[in-house]
């Protein structure tokens, strides 16, 4: 695998992926641009009308570059997708595929990348005329690998406030159950999975099932929020006011949670 992540000054993020495929560019081009082939691997049903692309979910897009069989670029709402093909090898029967995806949601990068890796493997299976089996558990493990491959540090500190934003691989209700959120009671200390080493929890001040848990600490407040995310999982947003010193503890805690949800 060959992936890189670029953060742009305007806040946008680009993931770049390269794959060597044992098929000539002209054959791959058909898989990239013809709806009857896209149906076998692309994550949405696609309808083409001139330079307009309609997807079965999400906003429409536009074709921004169409240079067969070398470059096909299009938008999907505000996202930008670019597929480049080059002959690879002396016989011209293989190709180097370079794919870039530019988007706003940096913390969704691992989800996008694991999704596109799976799509490209499905496209390769289609080109090879063999079946492809999508395994959600494998994709969840791949997501966690990409967190590290892409260097996605979920932790930021502003003054004395710590914030962690991390895409998870399970839906909010499953995460809430894993954290024993149903045991949270206003005025009592939070269930242990909502706490970490060195942080002394006070009483729970807010609990919304599957969404939010807040509690006081010495000198601050901890808030767990499970919001809508990319892919099939929820987005965890954890803030700890007065918690900058607990940065490493919270990072390790969320890391352990993420891996536990994959198993």
From TrEMBL:
Domain Activator of Hsp90 ATPase homologue 1/2-like C-terminal: 23-125
Chain positions covered by the region annotation Disordered: 184-205
Domain of life the protein comes from: Bacteria
Similarity comment: family membership: Belongs to the AHA1 family.
Annotated protein name in UniProt: SRPBCC domain-containing protein
Organism expressing this protein natively: Nonomuraea marmarensis
Source lineage: Bacteria, Bacillati, Actinomycetota, Actinomycetes, Streptosporangiales
